[in-house]
Write a structure and sequence with these properties.
The complex is a heterodimer. Chain A is of the alpha/beta class. Chain A contains 3 helices and 7 strands. Chain A has one domain (3-105): 2-Layer Sandwich (Transcription Regulator spoIIAA). Chain A has a 5-stranded mixed β-sheet. A two-stranded parallel sheet of chain A has the order 3-5. Chain B has helices spanning 17-28, 35-56, 88-91, 109-117; strands at 4-11, 64-71, 74-80, 120-123, 127-133.
């Protein structure tokens, strides 16, 4: 999965570009691709990570586990995680699994 | 109403989930009127298969996962592995009962999703049966 990265002093924005799902079938590759940006974020003063889910229309519990893991890492450094441009399916899944109670999803 | 049945098996490798999902789509997608309902069904089946591969068969590629369904007024699909069975505490995962301490746990949400989207989830020794209305 390719990622389009945009950075400024406040925020790193990651846009998923060429895949429509985050699930057990592509998670390993996705984690590898995300890893350097998460490391960069943790070693910086940047306050927010924004994941742009415009292209994502399917997520499973392993994808949710990855998001919770990222949230916990950022939260421990007082950094915020936001998921933006998510569709109905992703929003439903986050509501059912109550991720929407601690992660900003819109 | 005519009853349709089919069965397939995969080896316990996460790479084989795509084959199972392809089989599911080609056999059952047309029966679902709503794309969203099918996506919820697909998600539940994928969660059950993942659970069977990782926890049931301990990712042992020599062990099989068998999928079989019966389709009439509703769909009933069984995902069976060769493992020791699902722990009772995991069977009980429920978003309505989640404690504050468990809120950030990374596991357990697959069963939560199955219970939410299916009309019934039956745990047997080494299988999960998902029952869902599809119209």
């Amino acid at each position: 999965m390719n990622l389009d990265i945009q950075k400024n002093s406040e925020k790193i924005q990651i846009i998923f570009t060429d895949d429509d799902r985050i699930d057990v079938t592509n998670l390993k590759e996705l984690k590898q691709n995300l890893s350097p940006f998460l490391l960069e974020l943790q070693n910086s003063d940047i306050k927010e990570l924004e994941l742009d889910f415009s292209s994502i229309n399917f997520i499973d519990s392993s994808g949710l586990a990855m998001i919770i893991n990222i949230y916990k890492k950022l939260d421990s450094e007082n950094q915020n995680l936001t998921i933006c441009n998510s569709g109905t399916f992703v929003q439903d899944i986050c509501k059912v699994t109550i991720l929407d109670t601690f992660i900003n999803i819109r | 109403m005519k009853t349709l049945t089919s069965k397939m098996a995969i080896k316990s490798d996460l790479d084989n989930i795509k084959d199972a999902m392809h089989w599911l789509k080609s056999n059952l997608r047309a029966s679902f009127k709503e794309e969203e309902t099918y996506k919820h069904f697909r998600l539940c089946v994928q969660e059950a298969i993942t659970n069977s591969i990782i926890h049931g068969n301990n990712s042992n590629k020599n062990k099989n996962i068998t999928l079989s369904y019966v389709l009439n007024e509703k769909i009933e699909i069984e995902i069976q592995d060769e493992g020791p069975g699902i722990l009772l505490e995991n069977q009980n995962s429920d978003s309505q009962k989640i404690s504050k301490d468990d809120l950030l746990k990374e596991s357990g949400r697959g069963i939560m999703l199955m219970k939410h989207f299916c009309d019934k989830v039956i745990f047997k020794k080494n299988s999960i049966t998902l029952i869902m209305k599809y119209k």
